[in-house]
Amino acid sequence: MARIAVAGFQHETNTFSPVKATWEDFEKGEGWPALQRGGSFHSAFAGMNLPIEGFMKEAMRLRHALVPLAWAATTPCSYVTEDAFERMAALVTEDLKKALPVDAVYLDLHGAMVTEHLEDGEGEFLRRVRAAVGDKVPVVASLDLHCNTTEKMVREASVLIAYRTYPHVDMADTGARVARHLDMLLKGRRIQAKAFRKLPFIMPLTVQCTMVEPSGGVYRFLESLEGGPVSSVSFTPGFPQADIADCGPAVMAYGDDQASADRAADALAKHIVEREAAFVDELLAPAEALKRAYAMPAGKPVVLADAQDNTGAGGTGDTTGLLRAMLDAGAENALLGLICDPETAARAHQVGTGRTGTFDIGGKLYKGDPTLSAEFAVEGLSDGQFLCTGPFYGGTHAKLGPTAVLRRNGVRAVVTSKRMQAADQEMFRHVGAEPKTARVLGVKSSVHFRADFQPIAEAVLVVASPGAAPMDPRTLPYKRLRKGVRLSPLGPTR
User: Fold this and answer.
1) Measured by CB atoms within 10 angstroms of the end CB, which terminus of the chain is less buried, N or C?
2) Could you tell me the pTM of the whole model?
3) Helix 82-99 vs helix 121-133: angle between axes, to the nearest 10 degrees?
4) Are 413 and 339 in contact (CB under 8 A)?
C-alpha cells in the first residue's frame, strides 16, 4: 500500500475573453464543485464524472492510502489572476510539505491554464510540486483533451494521461487509468521513457469531437499503439482560444525504452498529419442555419450549436445573435439556452410567471454583440438548482441562481444568473422547458452538448453567432503563437 497525495487545479483559459478568473471564482466553483480541502474530497466528488473521483475510487480499490490536499476549478474564461494562481499553488505545496513523506502525487489538471504572469500555468504548478517532493517520487497527472501540452509539463511530470472523448464522458475513467498506471510504477516498472511531439496546425474545437470522424478514428488508432513496451499514448488536440507559444495539438507516448516511446509518438503524429485536410467543419450564419433547420423533418428537434458563445470555451454566455435571428425569422417552437444575464433573470422574478415585461437581454459582458430589448412573457421561474443527468454533467448539482424562461411569440429563451455550458437536458427541463418537443433547439455549447442532445436530435448544425470564443482560429489575433504553425487545417501560417 502506497501513500498518495491528491490535489487538483483546473482552468481552461480563453485569452480573448473579457472576464478573468479570480480567487473568488475558484472558491465558489462557478459551474464546478467549490474549493475543497482535505477530508471533504470524498463527499464533494462522489458520483461525479471528474478525473479526481475516478482516480480516488480506483486507487482505493488498489488498496492505496490517499492524502487529499486541495482542489479547485472554475468555468473557462480569460486569464487566471496572479493572486488566484499563487494562492492555490501555495495551498497545495504547503499542504504537500506537511504531508511528507508520500510515495506519489496525483494532480487533476486541465492543461490550458494561462495566468496574468505565466503562459504555462500547469508547467509551473507541476514544477513547484516536483520541487516539494524531489526527483524520485512519481508525480502523475490527468489532463483535459484540450490541453495545450508543453515541454515543461512533460519534463516535470512522471506521466501525463489525457481524456480520449469529446464530449468528455471519460473524465472519471481517465482518472482511473492514471491510478492504474501509477500502481504499475509503484510496483516496480522502471521509470519510463517519454516522447513528445507538437503538431504543425491549429485544430478548431468543433472538429475535435470524437463522436464523428476523423477524430474518432484518431483515438481508435491511438489505442492500437498501446501494449507491450508502450504503456500509455495521449493526444491533446489543444485549445485554440489561447494566445500562447505552445497552443495547438500534441502527442505524448510513454514506454519502457526510448525507441518504443518514439515509435508510438511518431506513428500517431504521422496518422494525424496525414488526415489534416479532414479536420474541417461548416459554420453557418444564424439565418442560414434556421432556414436549413425548418426545411428538415419535424419529428425531432434540430439542434443549433451557438458555439462561439460557449461558456465552456470562455464565452460570456450573454450574446443574443442567435436569439435575435430566431425572432427576426419568426421561428416557431424554438427554444434557446443558456443565456447568462443575472439582471434579466432577477427582473423576470420580479415580473412573475404569466406576466409580461420589457427586458434588456445580454450584451453586458461581451461588447461585440448588442443588448436585445423587447417585450417577453415570463413562462417559468426556478432557483436554478437541479441535478444533471446526462453523460457529461451527470451527477453534478447545478446552481445557476435565479433562472427564467422568457417567451416572445414562438421563441423561448432560458436565462440564468450563473454561467454554465448548455450540455444537459435538465438545464431546460428543470424550469419547465422540455427540449425534446422543441422544433429548433439552440444550445450555447461547441461539442459537449452532443453527449446528451445528439441522441434526441434530427440533426446538428453549428452556428457562427458573435461571441468571445471564435471557432475559426484564422480569425484570432494571435501575438505569441510560435512561428510556422498553420492557423487551421491546411490554412495560412503565423
Assistant:
1) N
2) 0.96
3) 20
4) yes
- Cell output for 422: 448548455
- pLDDT exceeds 90 at position 258: yes
Share of the chain above pLDDT 90, in %: 98
Question: Does residue 180 contact residue 62 with C-beta atoms inside 8 Å?
Answer: yes
| Residue found by looking up cell 462561439 in the block | 308
Q: CATH 3.40.50.2300: which residues of the chain?
A: 3-278
Cis peptide before 167 (omega within 30 of 0): yes
- C-alpha to C-alpha distances, 249 to 239, 271, 322, 351, nearest whole angstrom: 8, 13, 30, 49
Q: What's residue 138's pLDDT? A: 97
**Where does 3-278 sit in CATH, by number?**
3.40.50.2300
Pick from 265, 259, 64, 43: nearest CA to 154: 265
**What does the buried/exposed string (b/e) look like for 365-387 if buried means 16 or more CB atoms within 10 Å of the residue's CB?**
bbeebeebeeebbbbbbbebebe
Query: Helix or strand or coil: residue 437?
Result: helix
- In 3D space, the residue among 46, 132, 30 whose CA is nearest the CA of residue 84 turns out to be 30
Count CA atoms within 13 Å of residue 458 on its CB side.
Answer: 19
Closest C-alpha among 462, 442, 443, 426 to residue 212: 462
Side-chain half-sphere exposure of 368, counting CA atoms within 13 A: 14
CA distances from 243 to 147, 149, 251 (A): 13, 14, 20
C-alpha cell recorded at residue 234? 495521449
3-class DSSP state of 98:
helix
Residue with cell 478568473: 21
Cell of 337: 439556452
Q: What is the Cα–Cα distance from 334 to 320, expressed in whole angstroms?
A: 14
Position 192 scores a pLDDT of 83
**Scanning the structure block, which residue is given the C-alpha cell 513547484?**
128
Per DSSP, helices labelled H in 162-241 are 171-186, 215-224
- The CA distance from 334 to 17, in Å, is 28
